[in-house]
Amino acid sequence: ESPAPLLAALRPAAAPSWSVRPHAAGALGALYRQLEGRTQERVREALVDALRDDVPRVRAAAAAALVAGKARESLPALAAYRKTLPRQEQVRLDRQTKALARGDGSVRDAEKRIEKLEDQLRRLTDQVRKSGS
To answer: Is 106 exposed, middle or buried (0-12, 13-18, 19+ CB in 10 A)?
Structure first.
């Protein structure tokens, strides 16, 4: 399940049609949180590059993908992209990035916290069993 075909479709020279590229950006945004390490970094870099694309729909799709993927590391690039937008679009992007800047909804962080709590619960349960014996 490599994102390589989607990354290739996002590039201007590789896509058979300009209309494919925004869809590739959206698909990469949907995959982003399931990716890890260097693969996630490559996807983020490609989407950040797409924020400077010649086609407005590609730029908008890349911004939406970064927000949907909760790519907090892309906030500076999204801020730069925001400056190129008309006021109404800036307000929309501000709303989308507000929660991203706060870090709301990070699935990976929540999963880590849950794992920690489960470990603590196991240890405490073991201590209670040992002290009750």
So the answer is: middle
CA distance linking residue 57 with residue 18, whole number of Å: 9
Comparing 14-18, 33-37, 120-124, the range with the smallest average pLDDT is 14-18
The 10s digit of each residue's pLDDT in 55-65 is 999 999 999 99
CA 52 from chain center: how many Å? 17
Is-contact 33 69, C-beta < 8 A? yes
Q: How many CA atoms lie within 13 A of 47 on its CB side?
A: 37
CB 24, CB 13: distance < 8 Å: no
d(CA 93, CA 26): 16
**pTM > 0.85:** no
